[in-house]
């Protein structure tokens, strides 16, 4: 189940808010034989997260087979979730991870997708511990208007969270669909973009392999639209990795429909790689301003990358009222 853009939020009575986790979304399918961690594009991530698999196997011994929805995140001291770029360092440095679980699709012999969120949450809380140091842990969720919601909003502001998810507590789980029952409220400008090419390093920069990425997104007609150059956010190891990857998918023709006049230093690749990018804003011409590369994503298909609607000021005001004693009513 996917969240819709916040847009104009409905009255928030009967809704709950949760952190928008900054990692890799997975469905954990725990059967008597195996544990799978399915990404959105159908890749099983289980082999890359043996500690999560072991924790889910231990849970299976107590509660049997189950299907859980959650996010793989990097964690720091005390088990505190970190940002997406920390997860990218896994394999290069010792990075601990956790699976933050926020929904339950099946458990104890029952399929739960038709149940209301509050019923699924109750079952989930009886299976998964909320302890911060657990490898598999229950994600925070607080009904709007509660003291917990006030604390969540305060933490989001203080710690600079990417955003929040608002969920209607009486709604079912609709697999594979983008639903208005879940609303995504983003505090930052960050999303995926498709890599269609790159510039070569300019003389004297001391950089090898890649100068800047040329990125874009697919419009409603399925056409790849250019969104700008991304020249910061790289380590030497990242540039080497990108250079090796681009050598395997090089093409002779620009894949973008609307790129400005290309310089001779531009090289083109098949638009199959997806990058996570943070940026300041998008100009009226559709170009990213001050973009920063955060990492590659192998959990999302390039064809599914579209320009996301930004959270407006009215939606931000509405979600902030979620932590108050009185809720926004229209």
Walk me through what this model shows:
With 330 residues, the chain is an alpha+beta fold. The chain has 2 domains: 2-186, DNA ligase/mRNA capping enzyme (D-amino Acid Aminotransferase, Chain A, domain 1, 2-Layer Sandwich), CATH 3.30.470; 190-304, OB fold (Dihydrolipoamide Acetyltransferase, E2P), CATH 2.40.50.140. It has helices at residues 50-63, 84-88, 117-127, 147-159, 236-248, 313-321, and strands at 2-5, 15-19, 24-30, 35-38, 66-75, 96-107, 110-111, 136-138, 142-143, 163-168, 178-186, 190-199, 212-218, 224-230, 250-251, 266-278, 281-282, 288-289, 292-297. It is globular, with a radius of gyration of 21 Å. The model is unreliable at 325-330 (pLDDT under 50).
Shape: globular
Q: What is the CA-atom radius of gyration, in angstroms?
A: 21 Å
The quaternary organization reads as single chain
CATH architecture of the largest domain: 2-Layer Sandwich
Residue share in β-strands? 25-35%
CATH class of the largest domain: Alpha Beta
Query: Superfamily at the CATH H level of the largest domain?
Result: DNA ligase/mRNA capping enzyme
Nearest-integer average pLDDT: 90
Q: Which class best fits the helix and strand makeup?
A: alpha+beta
The proportion of residues forming helix, as a percent range, comes to 10-25%
CATH structural fold name of the largest domain: D-amino Acid Aminotransferase, Chain A, domain 1
Q: Any idea how many domains?
A: 2
| Biggest sheet record | 6 strands, mixed
| Terminus-to-terminus distance | 27 Å
**How many β strands by DSSP?**
19
The number of helical runs is: 6
Q: Low-confidence spans: pLDDT under 50, at least 5 residues?
A: 325-330
Helices and strands, in N-to-C order? EEEEHEHEEHEEHEEEEEHEEEEEH
């Amino acid at each position: 189940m996917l969240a819709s853009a916040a847009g104009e939020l409905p009255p928030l009575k009967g809704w709950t808010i949760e952190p928008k986790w900054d990692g890799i979304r997975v469905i954990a399918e725990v059967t008597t034989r195996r544990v799978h961690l399915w990404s959105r594009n159908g890749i099983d991530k289980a082999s890359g997260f043996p500690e999560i698999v072991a924790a889910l196997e231990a849970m299976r011994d107590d509660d049997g087979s189950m299907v859980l929805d959650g996010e793989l995140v990097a964690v720091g001291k005390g088990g505190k979730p970190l940002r997406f770029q920390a997860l990218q360092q896994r394999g290069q440095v010792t990075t601990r991870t956790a699976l933050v679980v926020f929904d339950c699709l099946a458990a104890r012999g029952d399929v739960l997708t038709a149940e209301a969120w509050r019923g699924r949450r109750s079952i989930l809380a009886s299976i998964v511990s909320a302890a911060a140091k657990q490898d598999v842990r229950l994600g925070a969720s607080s009904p709007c208007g509660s003291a917990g919601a006030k604390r969540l909003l305060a933490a989001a502001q203080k710690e600079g969270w990417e955003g929040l998810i608002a969920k209607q507590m009486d709604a079912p789980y609709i697999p594979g669909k983008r639903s208005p029952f879940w609303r995504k409220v983003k505090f930052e400008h960050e999303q995926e973009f498709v890599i269609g090419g790159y510039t070569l390093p300019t003389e004297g920069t001391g950089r090898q392999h890649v100068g800047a990425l040329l990125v874009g997104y697919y419009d409603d007609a399925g056409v790849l639209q250019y969104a700008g150059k991304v020249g910061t956010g790289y380590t030497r190891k990242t540039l080497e990795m990108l250079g090796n990857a681009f050598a395997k998918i090089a093409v002779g023709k620009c894949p973008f429909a609307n790129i400005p006049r290309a310089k001779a230093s531009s090289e083109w690749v098949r638009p199959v790689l997806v990058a996570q990018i943070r940026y300041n804003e998008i100009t009226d011409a559709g170009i990213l301003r001050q973009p920063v590369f955060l990492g590659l994503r192998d959990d999302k298909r390039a064809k599914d990358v579209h320009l996301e609607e930004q959270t407006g000021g009215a939606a931000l005001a509405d979600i902030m009222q979620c932590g108050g004693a009185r809720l926004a009513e229209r």
